[in-house]
Queue: 2 jobs
Job 1
Amino acid sequence: MSSQEDTTVFIGGSTGLDLCSETVYSIQGLLLDSIFCGLFQSYQFKTVDIILKEDAEKRYPIYNFDNKKGLWEIEVHALIVLNGKVLITKDEKSILAKYRQEDIKDIYTINRIEAKRKYGSKLGKKGALIINTL
């Protein structure tokens, strides 16, 4: 599934994958497994591509896909903030791929109202995904 419009994804849909235990999530290249599933229960994404295990293993050879059936490759529509730094361009967002799940201290979303208040009406209009590393 891939779309240029906002896509609201409800984890646990009819993809044939138990999305909270059998998949891995890639947010702009940052690989996360099921412990972060609650973050994506109902969230608007820019694009979502579902990649089966064999292709995911080729695309992300450093990740151990044992006991996993596939990967959700997600591009978020929200503003991404890493350790207090706003990531806007694709090049800036690509830095996320250098981090591993073990590097994540916390990750959470803030709604549009709070994001607009904190980052301005233009940047915060879709909410924000906040990532802090160790």
Job 2
Amino acid sequence: MDGGRLGDQEACPLLWLDAQAAARVTEGIAAVDRIGATGSFGPLIRDNGSLIHYRLGQWEVAETMRLESARMLRPGRNAPVYHLTHTINLSVGRGEPDAGDRLDRVWQLLVGQPVEGQYQGEYVIARAAHQLWGREPRDAVRTVDEVTALLEAHPLPHFLALTHAMGARANADRAELARAERHPEEVTDVLARIDAHVARLAALVDGAPDDPDGQAELIASLRTAEAERSRAAGRSDPAAWQLAVEEWTSRDRAYEAALARWRLAEARLAGGDRPGGAVALLDAHAWAAANGARPLLAELTALARRSRIDLAAGVAAGQEQSATVEPDRFGLTRREREVLELVADGLSNRQIAERLFISENTAGVHVSNIIGKLGASGRVEAAAIAHRSGLISVRAES
């Protein structure tokens, strides 16, 4: 198989199955490098890999691939726009000093060009996030409104869902600002806008194929928008944020889950649940610190300071726990660990699918990835390796 097609044509449709896509990109990079086609396909496949690992919350790997791609880029338009749009959210999420310049360059390359979700969709999410981290919620709302109109004319559910969720987030920040500035009429307008985002997301979920994997990210976006609605109303709902955390976690979307945990911590602390707020805060802080998510890390640090929560104590507790529990040296994702538990229990792919509310095909992909990562010959050996390595718990006989 052609290494370039392995990275481009096959990896992009697998965004619903990022663990599989990441494995295919790794294979593709090896194939491209082996045949010496690094000039054209080398940057492209690494850009795909960077985006996939960004989505999985493995930002150090994503940054490595971004830098490798940047070194290989050739002059022109297509390669730079592909590179920038596939890596711009990583740059914004990490708070890179030149993120604003990169966003300006992306927009220059996109103006007057046909609308493509993978380009305009990635751009609007990154631009709005950059504006929100810069305390410019009204600008972020305008950004989302302008680009959403383009995306709605070329509907792609994945990017539309993320964009509407970002719109809800931007409007909730705007509501907090308006409330602080004592503009109640603006708060009323904001709530109506968020209601429109929520309604559109609900329609996207209803119109999605009856496939749990395909619907999962749409549902996570909807739950996030619903939680943002409660924040905009001045009564941030811990239960709504908990649902958002669970949905993003089930999709192995560590960054989105950390953002939701930040708001969950705020909501719990505001409601007097200090222990629950501390847990959510420390969980989000641990991921942000490990992956260099500097803007989020600054917000979490500020929240901890206001709430008098000792982040250092949380780090120390985590280090103590890691000293007593063998780390997962095989690189399994959270979902793969869940599947491995069920494989060890002797469940078939169909039974695993039913238990985890995923398709049988997706269950099979997870099992294949697990067997490959463990270097096992099959399911029985994979379960044995997992037991020996402490990857799964030993259950007492009933």
